[in-house]
Amino acid sequence: MASEYEVIIVGAGPAGIFAALALADCGIGSVLLLDQGKDLSERTRSEDMLCGWGGAGAFSDGKLTISPEVGGFLGDFIDRNALYKLLQTADQIYVDHGAPDRIFGEVSPELEDLADRARLADLELVPMRIRHIGTENCRIVLDRLRQSLVNRIEIRADCQVQNILCENGRILGIKLADGQILRSRVVIAAPGRSGAGWMKAEAECLGLRTKASPVDLGVRVELPAIVLKEITDAIYESKLIHYSKTFDDKVRTFCMNPYGEVVTEKNAGIITVNGHSYSAKKSANTNFAILVSSAFTEPFDDPIAYGVYIARLANLLGKGAIIQRLGDLLAGRRTTRERLARCLTRPTLTDATPGDLSFVFPYRHLLSIIEMLQALEKLAPGVYSRHTLLYGVEVKFYSNRIEVSAEMETEVKNLFAIGDGAGITRGLLQASASGILAGRAVAERLK
Description:
By secondary structure, this protein is α+β, with helices and mostly antiparallel strands. The chain has eleven helices and 21 strands.
């Protein structure tokens, strides 16, 4: 295999894959796409949840949010119309590779009525259009994307990058963990969520300017699907924002999964919770996250470390994920297996440990979560039931946002940073769009 390339892409998640597609479509042939995780056919949910071909999206439920307002910060670099067209382009590529045709959240009287009712509940409904691929279909779509790149670029799995190499402010290539040096004219860093820590360290080493991102920390809520049926039938996933009465913190719903399942993720030895939903298979429950956004200023500037600390505390107390009935939390007692057995909401994550989340979350976070549930109760009666289940913790590790140009180029010439791991995006479709944006810019430069 070649040791010199036109372009090396670090990370084979959505951002890296779509950058590779853009380069291949533009006729750039000497491209290496590598990932520290396994190839798609060898990935398993239990061991390779976040790393490998497809990144975290491989085991997600595949929500494509076709909205400039949600999923990242690309709107800071290109105007709204250009971003919307770019998102449509990325979305169409997913459709061409097997994503379903149906789109949720189209403008309708029902949606307008829901938005009005949300306002009366001190909530803001963020309108958006969503295409739902489904957990069982994500691997199919990702495999087709991979097949479309075979014989057009070089792909390597189980290939960990130690450092990005540059000299005099210009990129030279990368150094692998085994000491091998691969040279290239351009490097596109797309490390994804699992590579956020690595990206932060590399940015510091290279002297790149960054902006601290808030850490999103909270719980995964599970309740009977009937409670949110009116909402999920109309828009599938509702992005609702609330500002807590006590602390005025921003609290939001995230990743709603109608008739879905709660799952765990393992990253760098930390177990956190998440959720997904299938396209065809259905459970009796709906789950979603409630996340509290916290920004930090001097002297603390490491939100990733803060999120890791809270997640480790939950793992220490629960030996993994913790589950608690809302009624027990409000009564100031831990949930036991006996109390959980009397819960009318049957948990879809059966190996979570019954416990007490008040030992995990700071008072500020816990109260903001409770106030969000109270607001949601006004919109959808039944949310604030004592039988509602809370799983902890859910934390979104966002890398410090790297300063880049409108083409996604960093201050180091020919080093581009894209996707969630660079702090530029926060979702599948914007991550994919950032890959297209960078890939096209690189292709134009090399040509």
